[in-house]
Amino acid sequence: MSLSRLLSRTATASRVVRPAQTFNRRWVPRAMYSAGGGLSRESIKSRVLETLQGYEKIDNAKLSVSSSFHKDLGLDSLDAVEVLMAVEEEFSIEIPDAEADEIHTVQQAIDYIAKTPEGDYLTLSQSGVLVTSTDAAEVKAPSAFLLSPFVYPLYELRCSLRIMKHGIAFRKFSRTSSHRMLMLRNLVTSLFEHEQIKTTLPKARDTARLAEKIITMGKKGMDDNGARDRAAAFLLKPVALSKLFTTFASRYAERPGGYTRIHKFGNRQGDNAPHAILELVDNPRDLRWEMTSRAIGWEASRQKLKKLGTHEGVRVEASDILKVVNSERNMGHGQKGILRPMTRWNLQKILRFRPSSAPQVISEKAAAYSDEVIATPMVMKSLQEDTREKNPAARALRMKAGHKPLLDTRPALDIAKAKLGPTTSRPAHRKRLTITMERAFNTRSLRS
Fold first, then answer.
1. Cβ atoms of residues 297 and 373 within 8 Å
2. Contact between residue 229 and residue 220 where contact means Cβ atoms under 8 Å apart
3. What is the mean pLDDT of residues 416-433?
4. Are residues 289 and 340 in contact, defined by beta-carbon separation less than 8 angstroms?
5. What is the DSSP letter of 261?
6. Catalytic residue among 59, 76, 79, 414
7. What GO MF annotations does this protein's record show (predicted)?
């Protein structure tokens, strides 16, 4: 039997041929697959650490198995994605986005790789060949098996398919190279012009990668004469070019990297594509800055109301919040304070490269939001009392879904219902009487 017939996909009988000693795995077509026994946890650990040591933004002195990508190694979300991509390339695997979002430490990455099914057999469903560490044999199976990445259950073979990522350097977006590059140039230009854009998640990730490189050109513009020419050839609008070498170069002068941030924004209505907000860090409409200031105001108000137990005459001053901000920004991991650990971590990140006046500004924003949070239940209560005086049968005002007033101890499920929750049933409307000629001369029908 020739090698071409041995590796064909046209077989229909359901049988497996014993592996032959004459065919080595290097003869398998498109030999982009790694075969072999399962890796030990120690080898996985050493390879992961070796991969991370080669990343330029990681301090090897802080790197350990228990290190966190964000807290210990100081990586932002984009850097963490690049680190996981390097791990994927090292082990020739692909981690789904939903599971990659749950990997925050080196130990979690090692555990994920260790739990992937390993064994002495690999099934190449593309060519219908059963491959071991040394041999190859023809697999005669139904077409459903050949088109499926899973092992045919009749044979009960423990297999894993590890596809090496050849030629997958970036996303193609179903476009030609010129169309794809023009689209990404347009997105980067819009990002520099508005400093915050909304697009799909895959486009945001590739746009962020290019934007980081262009901003690095802007920082080198004073010393590198060719940087301005290269940036001008890439960007599509002069306004973006001028901001690159003035605003962005001064804003990110002390920041070593991580100039962009991606916020997941649900799915798009219609095609259900994952949406994301891509923004430049420390821009005037920084989402993390706004949400962190609100979180600080909410938690500071809650802490003060816990002590007093009433909303009347309570106000959190900006000076009090400034003391909280100055103490929390210097706390380490595991220390207890007024703010929650996630809020404290966000506060430390947004103040890391901002000017010295930033704590005062965020304290004033937090105090303003604290006044709004404290006043909202009082205003709703007064509106409800006025409405009941005018109409005793009026319904009580309800907060929007997900909103939680201070000192509220209801479970999250009841709060999430809000206006969508069960309501009192309305009285049924009486059926209108329809007058017809027959009913007009029939008294019994009118009485009924």
1. yes
2. no
3. 54
4. no
5. E
6. 76
7. structural constituent of ribosome
Average pLDDT for 223-233: 88
By the 8 A CB rule, do 138 and 11 touch? yes
Sheet holding 136-140, edge to edge: 15-16, 136-140, 129-131, 122-124
pLDDT score recorded for residue 131 = 43
Which of 30, 85, 22 is CA-nearest to residue 52? 85
pLDDT at residue 49 above 70? yes
Residue 76 is a catalytic residue? yes
Closest CA to 45 of 120, 105, 94: 105
| Mean pLDDT rounded to a whole number for the chain | 75
Instruction: Specify the pLDDT at position 225.
Output: 79
Residue 188 has pLDDT above 60, yes or no: yes
The answer to whether residue 356 scores a pLDDT higher than 70 is yes
pLDDT score for 179: 96
Reading the block at residue 145, the tokens are: 């098996």
Q: C-alpha distances in angstroms, 237 versus 186, 198, 287?
A: 9, 19, 25
Tell me what pLDDT residue 347 has. Answer: 94
Identify whether the C-beta of residue 117 lies closer than 8 Å to the C-beta of residue 188.
no
The full set of domains in the chain, from first to last, is 3-146 (1.10.1200.10), 177-280 (3.90.1030.10), 287-378 (no CATH)
Q: 35 versus 389: which is more confidently predicted?
A: 389
The predicted pLDDT at position 43 comes to 83
Beta bridge pairs of residue 123: 130
Q: What is the pTM of this model?
A: 0.56
Radius of gyration over every alpha carbon of the chain, rounded to an integer in angstroms: 31
Alpha-carbon distances, residue 294 vs 108, 234, 341, 365, 379 (angstroms)? 31, 38, 15, 8, 19
Tell the burial category of 127 from Cβ atoms under 10 Å away from its Cβ (0-12, 13-18, 19+).
middle
Distance separating alpha carbons of residues 369 and 358, to the nearest angstrom: 17
What six digits make up the tokens of 387?
Answer: 């409405």
